[in-house]
Structures are given as C-alpha cells and as structure tokens.
Specification:
By secondary structure, the protein is mostly beta strands. 2% of the residues lie in helices and 41% in strands.
C-alpha cells in the first residue's frame, strides 16, 4: 500500500549522480549511515553490538549486528507521517557511557533534532530540537560529531547560506548556542557541505571541509578552553582543487597520526596527514586519476591498531579498498570488493569496527538498500551482504529516453455519456484470502494481503489464458518466523520480508462459492531446523535492479501482450517503472524494461486496445497500450499511449501523453506530446493516495475507471474521510468522462454486517477483475467485479456492483441480446 505523503516527506538526498565535470557537479549529501556500538535489546547475544542508523523510506531506522547475522530494520518513528527526508545524513555518538544520541536535520525547519536512548532501555526519546534556534541547515545536510576529552562533544554543520556552525554539549547538559566557524561574506562553504570532525590531539578539535571559492580543503580548530573556533585555513599550500562540499573522511594511527581523505577534481583519491599539533603534510595520491567521480563520498576506518583502510566507489560502481600499515611508506590497493555496477559511482560509504576483531564497511547498493562487506582480523574480506530490506534511496536506474515529435490527430467530437449505480446492487461475493477461505495463504507463509492489480495472460494465441494477480504488501504467518512480533513496525531480516508482494494465478473462469481459488508463485526453502526438510513459501515479486518491493512500494497495474506479462510498479520516490516476464508463474526476477514517471503517472492502470476502435488515439492501425495515470501536483488523472507490436518490446521513446483537444473545421484535434509535463488532467482527484483501475468494455463501447476517495483513519489528510467511498467514472471517449458514480459506500452498502471489521478499516485498492466483469444488454448494466482492500481485515475482498448505462444505443443492445441468446454467454470485457 502506498501513501503519497510518505513520498513527499521522503524526497530528500540520494547518492551521487553519474560523474559530471567538476566545476558543474551538483554534490548530494548522502545517504549517510551512522555506525556505532551500543548496548541494545535486538542482539542480546552481544554486549555492545554495532548499530547502523539511517533514514529509509518511511522514517528513521536502525539495524543491529547480532553474533551471527544482522537484524533490521526497526523504525524509531511509530506514528504519524515521516519527518526525515529519505537518505538524509545522520550522526550518532555516545553522549556519555550510557546514552546513545542520534542527530539529524528536521526538513521543515532546518533545525538540528535529536533522538536518544539509555543503556538498558529499548525506548527512544524525542525527537526534540537541540537548540531553541540556529541558522537553518538544508534538509538532509551533512553532520559531523567529534569529542573533546571524555565528556564534551561538538556537532558541526553547514547552513543554507554555506557557513559552518557548531554547538557543543557537556555530558547531559544543555547544548550551547550555535557558533559560526566561517565568515559569511562569500558563503565560504557549500550549503549542507560534507564535513568531518576529529579530535586531532588531546583537547584539539578540528573540522575539515572543501571550501566553495578556493576549492581546497580547509580546517577550523578549537582548543580546550577556547571561547570560539579558529580558522578557516587551507591545510596545505600544495592542495589540488576538489568540488565544493566534496565527500571527506578521516582515520588515525597511534600517536595522534591522522589522515584526511577526499577525491579531487581529477578523480584521484587523495590523503593529507598530520601528527598531533604539527602542520598538515602535503597531499598524497592514493589512487590513479579518474578512479572515482570528483567529490565522491569516502569512508575510512582502522582495521587494526596499525592498519588504516579507506573506501570509495569508483566510476564503474565498484567498492574499492585501499590500505596502509603503520610503518608503510605508501598506500596499497585497490582491492575490488563488489562486482561492477553494484552501486552508483561515488556512492555513500561508511566504515566502522563491529567488534575488536571485525571491521565492516556499509554501502548503499544499486537497489537502494544497505549492504556490508566485512573482515575478521587481517583475513579475507567477505560480502557484500544485505543488512536491511529498507530502501535508503531510489534505485539506480537511468531515465529512459523520451520521444521528440508531437502528434495531432483529428477525430469526432467526444461523446458525453453518463452512468448510475444500480440501487442495492453492491455486495461482497466472498472474502478471497485468509483463514477459512479458498486461499488461506498460510501454506505459502502468508497471513494477510491487500491490493491486487491483475491481468489475463496468454502464452500464445491458442492458450485459454490465466488470471494473474499482483498483490500489495503481505503480512507473514508463523510458518516463516515463529517468534515474529506482528506489530506492523518490525521488519527483521527474514525471507520473504514483511510487506513483500505476492503473485498468484488461477485458471478458473467461473465464480463459485468463495470466489475462486488460486495458486501462489513459490520458492522451496530449507526449513529450520534443517532436519524438518523443506517448506514452500511465496516468492516475493522481484524486479531487476529494484529488488524486492517493500512497504509503500508495489504493483499498480498489469497487462499481457505477445506472450509476456508487463507490470507497472511504484518504488520509493515515488517513481514508476515497467517490468516484464515471459514466465510469470515461475519464481524468477522480472526484467526491468524502463523507468517511466516520477510525476503524473506513479499509479498506472494499463489496457491493451486495437487503435482503430478509439479515434482519439494518435494511431489508427495496429495495437496500442492506453495508460491512465494518477499523480501530479495538484493531483489528477492523466492519459498516455504507446504502440505495441508483436516481436518487439515496448519503447519508452514511443510513449505519447494526451495534451488537450480543440475544435476545428476538420473536427476535434487531439494533441499528443512526448513530454510528460504537458499531460493534461482528464479530471481532478481529491488529494491523497488511491489506486486506479481501468477497463474497456467493447460490447457497450465504454471505458470504466475505478478509484477510492477514502483515507486511512490515522491519516491527517483533511480532504478525505476514513469512510470515503469507492467511485467509478465511465466514458465513450478517453478524453471525456462522466461524473463520479459511487459503487461502494460503507454507510450505504452494509454488506450483511460482515464487511467492515474494525476501527482501522477503510476502503482502498479497488482493482477491476476483467475476467469476471460482464455486460447485460437487456438491462444496459455493467456487472462490475473488483477486488477491494479494507486494512481490517487485511485480506482481499471480492465485490460486485452494477452500473446502469442509459446512453448505449438501443439497436446495439438489441443485437447483443440476440447474440447472447444464440451463444448463451454474457458479454465479457476484452482480455487483450
């Protein structure tokens, strides 16, 4: 289930884009993960397990390294809309031996906020601002924390004007007023600049960053007892330029010997070193030039007391390791730790000690999720391995090429049609899933499920076809995790994860008591303990480069053409993608066809058509795909089309968007544009989440679209009600739609008192089942069958409602009644 407010609040920083020229490169801020050891309840077998704290889609999360594996993610935020931009930088430190504090920039106010917990307590406190006021920082901006002695800490950040500020705290006292580190005359630093803070020598705190004008590494410093910061000053006269705000990291060896690392304009991983309070040394090239994007994010850690590691993701998306021993005279490496294309060039990396013997590095992979590589002592590095299902960033998928040519087509004036709900016609046919139904789900490891975009699919023209259902989030049963806490927030590292999506199919073509039975696409996995053999669990819907789809992600619409199934999905962003498979009944990954939209089409409902049947479309021969999309600001429903042809896959460059119609002497001119931004609203949408579903009924020659006007009871959206209805619109021409027709109203349609189950119930996810929808020409009624979700119960409901169409010509109805009498069949929708 997808909540647009989650996406709007999560539209923060992402990884570095593909390399640009250094002077023009817009550096991003993260996502940055804080790694820190602290006592926790999630890994009781470890005294001080390593915590990974990060901002993922849906809020602030942490994962924990237990003795044998990582577990995560666990959201710190339990209620209300998320307040952290996805991928934002976080900083964590021990504010004394018994307090773990996490800092981040609150996106609305730009103020530094904290959450904290105490040793022996599982609950987190906050969030709360650390200061009454300070110059605001950009949402997702970098934060750096350094200690000064054993009981004082400083946080350093760059505000929205490009100046560095700092605040300090002694033990559990109040934070001090923010102090400026840099002059304000020329916006000395990049806003939100990457910065690293270290205790360079006992009592000497240094903050390092790449300045905006000079493009060189600068340092500000502060000794114990100082009332203000000193500097800024370049650390050496031979510095080579680097992009303003470039990624920067630091690590040390015994004897207060420090190195600071960054990638300069030539793409060279570079280090400068210093010992205690001595001057900084000249820069040293660690790598060859053109290794990584200029300004790439870097990480550093001590593998042992005498060995330093530095990490960077190169231009091929490979995580590289370079290292230097205490007595070595030069740097060694690289060791390539991941395959090419594993992540985005220049991606964010973080390194730390998991224990005295284990060193880890965390990188956000191309699917947007965090992975680790690790080493025990000075042994062989292992990994990468995923540590959380939560997505920290959009998947690394390039925008597909759009077309260039606008097209006009002339057709008849669009006919206005109407429709009305047939009184007392709405009824629940069956609860389709859950205990006691034809589809109990628990044999496949599931308990409940929602949504359900569907399509009829034929592998070849003689195939009778199967109905495929692509569900939304699945809640799990004890088959998968006997001790799982079903509180809706815990997302442990299990397979399938909580909220993954299920694919099912059926050959049944006639409804029976209970609806219809389906089979679930499944994996056979080893049971625990292994002596119990194997068990069958559902195979989560998985897309190339996106991976599994988690919370707030899922299929939105599906179609079949030329022996392949295609599924539109929405993933964190929101961004919609098109995926495809020629074996949808097998536990295979769907191929990613292209990225589609992050604006007006992130909920997509597709229908395959014969172009000649629809004079408003930009082609009148062959086949095409009609796409209704919900999105945009203000929200509305939009129309797109692209050609389909046997023997080739759909091309994003051939997609056109309906950009309006005008009346001319030649008839109505329909304008179709290759630019999504020119797509016109077909009709406005009440702001808020809804799925959309579309069908074409050739017998009455009508389109029908279905969507919800409800909201979740916990949603603060004032434009909707938890008891809002499911509505439909009908049309003869895709550009001219009827008024809304209420097909399910929880106040009007009681449905035998068993339909509405709890205080958290609301009506959403109405998806038309084409196979079971029919047309009655005698009464001029659509017998609409659709799936409906209610949240409580968290199961699919199969519902029927009838819509009367008064505008269907009488002659068409008479002919169809005669045909119906001869064939003894009802008129179904076109299955494409």
């Amino acid at each position: 289930m997808i909540d647009p407010r989650t996406f709007l609040a999560s539209s923060g920083a992402a990884l570095l884009a593909a390399p640009l020229a250094a002077e023009a490169m817009p550096l991003d801020f993260g996502p940055k993960i804080a790694l820190i050891r602290f006592q926790g309840d999630r890994a009781p077998d470890v005294d001080e397990p390593l915590h990974a704290l990060f901002v993922a889609a849906g809020g602030f999360h942490y994962a924990v390294a237990a003795r044998d594996s990582w577990v995560g993610s666990f959201p710190l935020q339990r209620t209300g809309p998320p307040v952290w931009p996805m991928g934002a930088s976080v900083a964590a430190f021990k504010q004394g031996p018994d307090q773990l504090t996490v800092l981040y920039v609150e996106p609305e106010s730009g103020q530094l906020n904290a959450q904290w917990r105490f040793r022996g307590h599982a609950e987190w406190n906050g969030p709360a601002p650390i200061l009454p006021s300070h110059p605001p920082a950009p949402s997702g901006g970098s934060l750096a924390v350094a200690a000064q002695g054993s009981n004082r800490w400083f946080v350093v950040f760059a505000d929205k004007t490009g100046n560095l500020f700092s605040s300090g705290v002694d033990g559990g006292a109040a934070w001090t007023k923010a102090q400026r580190l840099t002059p304000s005359l020329d916006a000395f630093a990049e806003q939100g600049s990457n910065v690293v803070a270290i205790e360079q020598a006992p009592g000497l705190v240094s903050a390092l960053f790449v300045a905006k004008s000079s493009r060189r590494v600068h340092v500000c410093w502060r000794e114990t007892g100082d009332l203000a910061w000193n500097g800024p000053a370049p650390i050496h006269s031979l510095l080579k330029p680097a992009p303003p705000g470039a990624g920067i990291a630091a690590a040390s060896l015994p004897g207060d010997r420090w190195w600071v690392f960054y990638v300069d304009d030539s793409g060279t991983l570079t280090a400068n070193r210093v010992t205690g309070r001595d001057p900084w040394q000249a820069p040293e090239a660690i790598s060859v030039s053109n290794t990584a994007p200029p300004g790439a994010l870097v990480a550093a850690a001590n593998q042992t007391d005498w060995l330093i590691n530095v990490f960077v993701v190169d231009r091929d998306g490979v995580l590289r390791l370079y290292w230097r021993a205490q007595d070595a005279t030069q740097w060694s490496g690289p060791l390539k730790m991941t395959p090419p294309g594993f992540t985005t060039p220049g991606a964010a990396v973080t390194a730390a000690k998991q224990s005295d013997d284990i060193t880890v590095v965390v990188v956000v992979a191309g699917d947007g999720r965090p992975y680790i590589c690790w080493v025990v002592g000075t042994g062989q590095w292992q990994g990468p391995a995923r540590i959380s299902w939560s997505r920290l960033m959009r998947a690394d998928v390039s925008d597909a090429a759009a077309g260039e040519k606008t097209q006009d087509i002339y057709g008849p004036f669009p006919q206005s049609v109407t429709g009305s709900h047939v009184p007392k016609s709405t009824a629940r046919i069956a609860q389709l899933t859950g205990p006691g139904t034809l589809n109990p789900l628990d044999p496949w490891g599931g308990y409940g499920v929602d949504l359900g975009a569907s399509t009829d699919h034929k592998t070849n023209p003689s195939d009778p076809g199967r109905l495929y259902i692509f569900s939304g989030d699945v809640t799990l049963c004890d088959l998968l995790e006997p001790d799982a806490v079903r509180d809706g927030f815990v997302d442990p590292d299990r397979y399938p994860p909580w909220d993954a999506d299920l694919v099912a199919y059926t050959d049944e073509g006639v409804l029976r008591k209970g609806g219809f039975a389906f089979r679930v696409v499944s994996d056979l996995v080893r049971a625990q303990p292994p002596a119990q053999g194997f068990k069958s669990i559902y195979h989560p819907f998985t897309v190339e480069r996106l991976g599994l789809l988690g919370t707030d992600e899922g299929p939105t619409g599906a179609f079949s053409y030329d022996g392949r199934v295609y599924v539109f999905v929405v993933a964190a962003g929101p961004v919609s993608y098109l995926a495809t498979s020629d074996q949808p009944d097998q536990p295979h990954t769907f191929a990613l066809r292209f990225k589609f939209s992050s604006d007006k089409f992130w909920q997509v409902a597709p229908v395959v058509v014969r172009n000649a049947d629809h004079p408003e479309l930009p082609a009148q021969t062959g086949d095409g795909l009609v796409m209704i999309g919900q999105g945009g600001y203000p929200e509305g429903v939009h129309l797109a089309w692209m050609p389909l042809a046997e023997g080739r896959l759909p091309e994003r460059a051939e997609m056109l968007f309906y950009a309006g119609a005008t009346t001319t002497d030649r008839g109505t001119r329909y304008r179709w544009s290759p630019r999504e931004e020119e797509a016109r609203n077909l009709f406005a949408m009440v702001p808020g989440y809804t799925a959309v579903s579309l069908a074409w009924l050739p017998a009455p020659a009508r389109w029908i679209v279905v969507y919800s006007r409800a909201k979740a009871p916990w949603d603060s959206n004032g434009d909707r009600s938890p008891r809002g209805p499911i509505v439909a619109r009908v049309a003869a021409n895709l550009t001219s739609w009827s008024d809304e027709i209420v097909i399910y109203d929880p106040a009007r349609d009681r449905l035998n008192g068993v339909f509405w189950d709890g205080k958290r119930s609301w009506a959403y996810g109405a998806f038309i089942i084409h196979r079971f929808t029919s047309w009655s020409p005698g009464s001029s009624e659509i017998h609409l069958r659709f799936l409906l979700s209610l949240f409580e119960p968290y199961q699919l409901q199969l519902v029927e409602s009838r819509i009367h169409l008064p505008d269907v010509p009488f002659w068409r109805r008479v002919v169809q009644v005669f045909i119906q009498f001869l064939t003894r069949e009802t008129f179904k929708v076109d299955r494409g």
